[in-house]
C-alpha cells in the first residue's frame, strides 16, 4: 500500500532536502547556474486525462527545466513523455478489468536540485505519482535521498553512471551511461586525427565527471592531454580566449560538450581560428541540433558524437520522427524525446505485467517483461532490457561527420 504523507513529515523532509541540495552540485548533462526564470515556472502544468465512467487515472510526474537556457532540452524530454501518454490514452490500458489513463504533472525546476526536491515533495503530497521523470543528475541525486521511502520510481534521464552507486531499487536510468562512448570515441579520434587532446567541457559536475572518465581511456591508448579548462555556458557567451589558449597547445582533438547551441558556437569559433582537427562531443550536445545552429553539417566535419535518432532506419523510428515534428512543430526529434517516449511505454507495460499501478517494487520487478511487451510500432529504437542497476539497455550507435555527411559508428 502507498504511504499516507503526513504534513509534519512533509515539512521536515522538505527542509532536509533543501539543506541537502545546497551541498550537491547540479551534476547533470545540461546544468547551468542560471537562476532567472519565467514566473510561470512555479506553476503546475497538468495534462489531464479524459476518463469515462469506470476508468481511473495514474499520475506521472516531471521535474525539469521548462524555462531559461535549458528550456528546449526540458521540452524535448517532456514532449516525448507527453506524446507517449497521449497515444496510450487513446484507448487506455487495462489491469484486472479496470481501464487506466495517464495524467502528467510537470513542474519547472530550472536545473536546480533544491528546486527538484521541493517540486517532487509537492507532487508526492498533492498527486501521489507512481513515477517521476527527472532529466538531470543533480535532481536525481537529491531525490534519491527519499524516493524509496516515499515510494515512487525515478525515471532518470541522465547518462551519469554515479547515480547507480547507491543501489536505489526504485530507479530507472533511461539513456545509456556515458561510459559506453569512451572507447569508440577515442578509437575514432586517435585513428583519424592524433594523440593530443585539449579539454573544453561544460563547467557542470557532469562535465567534470565526463572529463575524469575519458582522460584515463585516452591516455591508456597513447594519448596526451595538452590543455584543460571548462566553460560555464550560463555565464560565458564569447569563447575566443579559452579556445585560442587551447589551440596554442597545438591539439589534434578538442573535447567539447554542453548544451547543443553553445557547443556549436565553440566548434564554430575553433574553425574560424583555423583548427582543422577533430571534435569529441559529449553526449549532451546533439549533432543534428548543432547542424541546425551552424547551417548544416559542413562545419561539423571531423566530429564524433551520438547518432541522430532520425538516422535509424527502423520503420517505427521514421514514423516517430515524422509524427513528432508535426505534433510539436519541431525541426528535430532528438534522442531525448525518442528515448523518453519509449520509456513511457516500457513503464506502462511493466505496470500491466505487474498487475498493479501502485506497487512500485512489483513494477520494477516486471520491467524486463514490460520491455518485451512494448508494441512494435512504439519500439523507436532497440531496447533489449533493464540491468540489475536499473539502467535501460539500448542498442546504440555513435556518429561521425565526414564530408558534410553523418556516418554511423558501431558501439560494442
TrEMBL record:
User: Sorted alphabetically, which InterPro entries does this protein's record hold?
Assistant: BCAA_transport, Leu-bd, Peripla_BP_I
One of the Pfam families matching this protein, by short name? Peripla_BP_6
Where's the Leucine-binding protein domain?
Answer: 58-369
Q: Where is the signal peptide?
A: 1-21
Start-end of Acidic residues biased regions = 29-53
User: Residue ranges of region Disordered?
Assistant: 29-54
Q: CDD domains given for it? A: PBP1_ABC_ligand_binding-like
Q: Which UniProt keywords apply?
A: Signal
- Say which family it is in: Belongs to the leucine-binding protein family.
- What this protein is called in its record is Amino acid/amide ABC transporter substrate-binding protein, HAAT family
